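Q: Structure tokens for this one, please.
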Amino acid sequence: MISGGWDNWMVALFIFGAVAISMLGAGWAQWLEHKRRSQAMDVIKAALEAGKEPPPIVYQQINKSNSSKPPWSEVVIFTALGFGFWIAFANAEGDSKTAFMVVASTMTVTALGCLALAIMRPGSGKNDDAE
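A: Here is the predicted structure, written as tokens:
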């Protein structure tokens, strides 16, 4: 009985850890993107104050940062969550098996959907990088 409780805590800790690491990674990526945009805006502001036209590459970088990115981080998050809930399903007893199975399958399907979106990259044409 004690080992069963320990297994549940390990699964919960794994899921919490996966979510926490994913959220920290997403926050870090957003912060880096914010810094890039801020630096680009500073370059534009300095050029305009000097009475010069900012380099076109700065505008291209801002436009590039506004484009949608493939959901690779979501693939990792939902895969980790699905994996954790499949472990919980395998270790569960009785009626809780059904609940874990529903959540695990939902997370797995969501991870597969995000993977498909990341691979296919809808809305991005091959000529987007050439501009």
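A few notes: The chain has four helices and no strands. The chain has one domain: 2-120.
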